Structures are given as C-alpha cells and as structure tokens.
Amino acid sequence: MRVLGIESSCDETGVAVYDTAFGGAAGLRAHEVYSQIDLHAAYGGVVPELASRDHVRKLLPLVRETLREAGLSTTELDGVAYTAGPGLVGALMVGAGFARALAFALEIPAVAVHHMEGHLLAPLMEDDPPEPPFVALLVSGGHTQLVHVARIGDYRLLGETLDDAAGEAFDKTAKLMGLPYPGGPQLAKLAGIGRPGLFKFSRPMVDRPGLDFSFSGLKTQVLLAWRGSDQSDQTRADIALAFEEAVVDTLRIKCERALDAAGCDTLVVAGGVGANRKLREQLQTMAAKRGGRVCFPRPELCTDNGAMIAFAGALRLQAGESVDAQVKVRPRWDMAELPTLDTVTGSHA
Known about the structure:
Helices cover about 40% and strands about 20% of the residues. The protein is built from 10 helices and 10 strands. A hairpin with a 4-residue loop joins β1 (about 1-5) and β2. α5 crosses α6 (about 185-190) and α7 (about 215-225) runs antiparallel to α8. Residues about 345-349 have low confidence and may be disordered. Its cofactor is Fe(2+). Keywords: Acyltransferase, Cytoplasm, Iron, Metal-binding, Transferase, tRNA processing.
C-alpha cells in the first residue's frame, strides 16, 4: 500500500510517501518538509493566520515534488493520510481539505491521523523497530508526555507537563536571554560551549511521587540568574548548559520511573526535543544500565513531518479505517480516544 502523508498542524508543511510493501526504513519512498521559521521570526512566534496561508501556498508544490522524488504519479497511490489534530485549526483545515479532495478525486480512502500518534510511531519506521509494550516519551514544543503503549492505539497516559512543554521551555528561556526565534535549538547549541558547574538549577518535581512535569519555574530561575550576571556571551552559554542539564536530568529521572511503573524495558522517544544530543546520550546510558533499550527516530523525523503521518496512516488504512467525504479536524484530541489496532493481523482489536 502506497500512502501519501500530509502534515500541517502548525508551522511545517510536511509531505511523504510510505510504501508498506517494503516496510521499515525502506518503506519511506520520499519525504519533504517546508519550515515557516523565517516567516514567523519577525513576530517571535507562530502567527496562526499566516501559517494557514503559507500551507495553502506550499502544499501542492510540495506534494508534486515528493511524488516526483518517489517516482510515482497520483494514480499509483492507494491512500491518503493527513493530520486531523491536535493543532492550529486553520492549518489543520488546509491539510485536511487538500487530502480529502485528492482522495475523493482518485477514489481512494483517506484517514485522519492523530499528530501525537504520528510522533509516537515514528521510531517504528526504523530498522529493528520496538515492539509493544513500551513506554513512550513524547517531548516537543507543544507536548511533554509519558505514555504506556500496550498495543498500537492502546495508550495510557502516565504523566504530562502541568505548564510549559520541554521544547516550549527551551524556546522561552532562549528568548529571555535575547536569542532570536526559534531559540531552543540555538540554546542547545550554546550549551555545548558552556562551562559546567557555574550555574545550578533545580530538577522540578523529581522530589515527589508521580510522573508529571513542570518546567515553568526553570524559566524564572534562568531569568534571575541572567539578570544578576554580566550577560556576556560566555555567561549565556554557561546558563544554557545549566538549563539543558536540568531539563535533561528531569526527563531521564521521570523516564526511569515510568519504565519501573509500567514494568517495561523499552523506551521510545519522539518529538522535536528527541533530537537533543545530550538527552539521547543520557537516555541511552540509563537504558544500558537497566539492560533495556531506547529507540529514537532519525533526527529529521523528530520534528513535525509527513513521514510519520504517512506511516501511522498506512497502519490504520491497512486495518480498514477511513473517513467520509466531510472535512473534519480536531484542534484538541485525546489519544485515548483512538481505536486499538491488532499489530499482527492489521485489523481492529
């Protein structure tokens, strides 16, 4: 089954083709992502109306480019998958409307995909994919969640952020220290030249039971440290390192607790912050000490992309799921509402 995937939940336009005949990493025939970072930089954050308009401009050319890269025509597609939520309603409507119209014209099925399920399943596209049950850390600019995955579609929330997501905390902390939008990746890069031990920030909520997160207080600690410093470039790097260490340590501690609580040895990490080098190193070390494993998607599939939507959609299309001709999106959507799939037979459980 050849599935076209379309991602348009926020400020990336992602398109991909996944072919289930090959499976694994080989099944990803082509994928392209267009980022709107330059468009929104002047505003210091994503402007929803501008995001929607840019998806309208970029989606069709990107679909054509992706199909050309895959060596396919639209008539060779067997299904279309699109992000139906959660996300910005206008941006979601652009992708959903395009996908539904294309599927209708081609007389092939279309399926609505949950954005976070796409992230969660992205590591399963790699060679030697993990098998459920496992614990997933979904960590991005909009979400920080720990989820127990019994089967595909059978998700139980173990813990989540009570305020800022980890990626959001990176971006806001960078902005506090004068870094341009989006500051999170720049903050992580600066941390690489920071001097360890000069600043120390708390590891929030690790001194109490439970698996929830809170990162908003770290921003206040950084702001106070920055205001009381000489505000030199080196000091900015030193604070960036201390902040990154605090976030990464917190995520590692909570992941280990979640594995213990779920009785699992496998951790799956997905989302934009999953590309962070220090986080990957710490989680790999933690997993090795436990005799388990940690699985990541390749770095380019950590951020929003069409490949994860094509893959998740292919699994659900194979299970017989599809949507009717109405264009529907869900800006808020609980993953617990998703139907469970039997990963062996590909049918509804």
